[in-house]
Amino acid sequence: MKYSPPVDQGLELLYEDKHLLVLNKPAGLLSVPGRGADKLDSLITRVQKEYDDALIVHRLDMATSGILVLARGSKSHRALSMQFQHRLVKKEYVAVVHGELTATGGMIDLPLLTDWPNRPKQMVDFVHGKASQTRYRLLQKDSVRKRTRLSLMPTTGRTHQLRVHCQYIGHAIVGDRLYAPTQLAQQEERLLLHAQSLCFTHPETEEEMAFDREAEF
Description:
Largest sheet: 10 strands, mixed
Order of helices and strands: EEHEEHEEEEEEHHEE
Number of strands: 12
Number of helices: 4
CATH architecture of the largest domain: 2-Layer Sandwich
Radius of gyration: 17 Å
Shape: globular
Number of domains: 2
Distance between the termini: 24 Å
């Protein structure tokens, strides 16, 4: 699939100081450069044009929009990376999925593994997969379009975790070109998945930082 990143309209900066940056990544933009000269454009390369000390701490899928925190300098990078490694960061996503869920909430606990013959796809593997958990909460049902709006709160951070978990329980995310059936995937121009909130501890002041950016869908 040809990479066609969104036009660079400037950074949507939610917060900045000398230790970190918080931004809203647009859908369709890589978090970091991919393989090949045609995939150099990414959030981090755009940011580094203005902040040459910016370093990536975590990533969002290219198709996913939402909040990312970037470190400024190696000291902040180590501190923030440790928070993600030890699962001290709280993340909440909003997604629109196909079908109407009956449960108002719950936990999806399904181990994930890379589907090597079909990379970059991931799959559920109860023998070799890594533990992966996602809490979910029903936000709204759309009985006309047969869709459900969910709040997704991952406790682990596996590749494509939210997309695979939703697909496996029979409610693929709308617009998911990798995991939804073709007819359903093409109902929207983009993946309806957005990193809506992020909470972490400031690497220098140890103050609790909380950011929200509502989805545009």
